[in-house]
Specification:
The protein is mainly β. It contains no helices and 15 strands. The strands form four sheets. Strands 2, 4, 5, 7, 8 and 9 form a six-stranded mixed sheet that branches.
Length: about 170
């Protein structure tokens, strides 16, 4: 007879993966000689990104998946009698792409005579929020003031000390 449906083991149902690459894994089914795999962005598998037949092992490496995308996958065993039923489908999501580095727009690098109350500004870079860090050393090894959760592309600073050189950077989160 055709083999029973395999049990999927990895990744876990609904897992968010930090990488665009994944090793799909399932348990061996008695009587299965090979496996057929389907990976899709549609939960009904109406269009398959991957439809690979004849896999001799219980794992399959998928690379180059799109960031921030949900995927669905299933497997079935097959032998000389034909294919068995597909496993229950599982889903996983690839993590969203990291935001690009923002471009700092003001004050200009090396600016002098900047007010002790000044607004820092930068170009949007795809972050949901931004983090600003300010220090008095160019390598950021001295004490750093960090401001998190900024939803705008500007941040008003107050209380700076005149005559001190400050360094700042921003990253998207």
């Amino acid at each position: 007879p055709a083999p029973a449906a395999p049990t999927l083991t990895a990744p876990n149902e609904g897992e968010t993966l930090a990488t665009p690459n994944v090793t799909l894994a399932w348990l061996h089914v008695s009587g299965a000689d090979i496996y057929d795999l389907q990976v899709s962005t549609a939960s009904d598998f109406s269009s398959n990104l991957i439809a690979h037949n004849g896999i001799p092992s219980t794992t399959y490496d998928v690379t180059g998946l799109a960031a921030g995308t949900p995927y669905y996958w299933r497997v079935r065993g097959s032998n000389a009698s034909g294919p068995g039923p597909f496993s229950a489908a599982r889903s996983f999501t690839t993590a969203a792409a990291l935001p690009a580095a923002p471009t700092l727009t003001g004050p200009a690098n090396g600016a002098t005579d900047v007010s002790t109350s000044h607004t820092l500004s930068w170009n949007a870079s795809g972050g949901d929020t931004y983090q600003v860090q300010i220090t008095t050393t160019s390598d950021f090894t001295a004490e750093v003031s960090t401001y998190d959760g900024i939803e705008d592309t500007a941040y008003p600073l107050t209380g700076l000390t005149a005559g001190i050189t400050y360094h700042w950077r921003v990253r998207g989160v």
